[in-house]
Design goal:
The chain is an alpha+beta fold. It has one domain (4-355): Creatine Kinase, Chain A, domain 2 (2-Layer Sandwich), CATH 3.30.590. Helix content is 47%, strand content 14%. Helix 2 (63-80) runs antiparallel to helix 8 (257-272). The relative contact order is 0.15.
Length: 369
């Protein structure tokens, strides 16, 4: 399966303090400030927060090609900005304070003004989140419905193995996926937009369209017609019609490209696997809460069973990446490993530096030093 991916990394000074300079980086590379520019074989895109840049491989492809294209761009970035800026993964910047962030203040300001009026952007759930997004193409309505429902049933397990945000403002939160805790609350004035991360099952396309129309209705009542677009849905899985795909939004960015591609391989394999999954929404919400709070620790038997099924259905390329997912299931998500290391060392700085080197060298972070 060819899956499109989008990867959000924080931009930092050499000491890994967040730097709100995405516009300056884009201007340096292209000669002008734009929302998105070509960069190597990727697109380099701004985000709401000026401390984050998104890397988008130019076209969907198998995990090996996608990983190579993405790593090439990361290598080029670090070579170009050596001594000035460094990238860092994870689901949130581990030490960023809100006074170190800035909202993108060039194009699309009309959208951000409405978001700010409705929800207030000055919170970590807007200005300090980084996601790994996956786009799964669908063939027709039946395929759309089937993929959407399978992804929603997989969300708790995908959240568990990709949890990577145990720190906020330099402190351990006690939660492995703090990004999702904040993400699901950042639009609480209209709860249906995030919909508790796990949406309801759909039986046909009109079910999804009815959900979107209700979101639009609630936005219009608040004078926010400008936000009535397909991308406003912030659930863990949504449908994109303009680029026909199922988009997975619930995953934390990982520490390096290889770990991102392992998550992609896991999803690809499970979409083909012959497995029975939980469909009851209350059960899925409870499982997702366990994944958010504990990472893989609370779902180990289920995850190991899914790893076995993924290995059965994986192709030869995907199978090379899946041992990392099994290791995460057995030894802990990235968040669990990072939290353990911070507790051992009593400070965050050396751990953050190691995570930065993981991204540069494309070597997964490990439990030992």
């Amino acid at each position: 399966m060819s899956i499109g991916t989008e990867h959000e990394f924080s931009v930092n000074d050499p000491g890994y303090f967040p730097a709100p300079v995405s516009d300056l980086v884009i201007q340096d590379l292209s000669g002008r400030i734009e929302g998105q520019i070509p960069f190597c074989r990727c697109l380099l895109s701004k985000e709401l927060q000026k401390t984050v840049l998104e890397f988008i491989p130019g076209r969907p492809g198998p995990v090996s090609r996608t990983g190579a294209v993405l790593q090439e761009a990361i290598d080029r970035f670090h070579a170009r900005f050596r001594g000035r800026y460094a990238l860092l993964g994870l689901g949130m910047h581990p030490t960023a304070r809100l006074d170190q962030t800035r909202v993108w203040d060039h194009d699309e300001g009309e959208y951000y003004a409405v978001y700010d009026r409705l929800f207030s952007l000055r919170q970590h759930g807007w200005l300090n989140i980084q996601a790994l997004q996956m786009n799964l193409p669908y063939r027709d309505e039946a395929d759309l419905v089937a993929q959407y429902n399978r992804v929603r049933s997989l969300l708790p397990y995908l959240v568990a193995v990709t949890a990577a945000s145990p720190l906020v403002e330099g402190r351990l939160t006690g939660t492995m996926d703090t990004r999702l805790v904040m993400y699901r609350e950042n639009q609480r004035q209209i709860p249906l937009i995030c919909n508790g991360i796990v949406p309801e099952k759909i039986n046909r396309l009109p079910d999804y369209l009815a959900l979107m129309e209700e979101i639009y209705h609630q936005l219009r009542r608040k004078g926010a017609d400008i936000l009535c677009e397909e991308w406003v849905n912030s659930s863990g899985v949504i449908v994109r019609f303009t680029r026909p795909c199922i988009e997975i939004k619930a995953l934390d960015e990982q520490e390096c490209v290889r770990s991102d591609m392992a998550a992609v391989a896991f999803v690809s394999s499970l979409m083909r696997a012959k497995i029975r999954l939980e469909e009851d929404r209350d059960e899925l919400l409870a499982l997702t809460e366990t994944a958010i709070r504990r990472g893989t620790a609370g779902l180990k038997p289920e995850l190991l069973a899914l790893c076995k099924e993924a290995e059965k259905s994986a192709n030869s390329v995907e199978r090379r990446y899946l041992p990392l997912i099994r290791k995460r299931a057995e030894e802990g998500s990235l968040a669990e490993l990072v939290a353990d290391r911070v507790r051992e060392q009593g400070c965050t700085d050396p751990v953050i530096r190691e995570l930065g080197m993981s991204l540069r060298n494309n070597i997964p972070f490990t439990a030992g030093s």
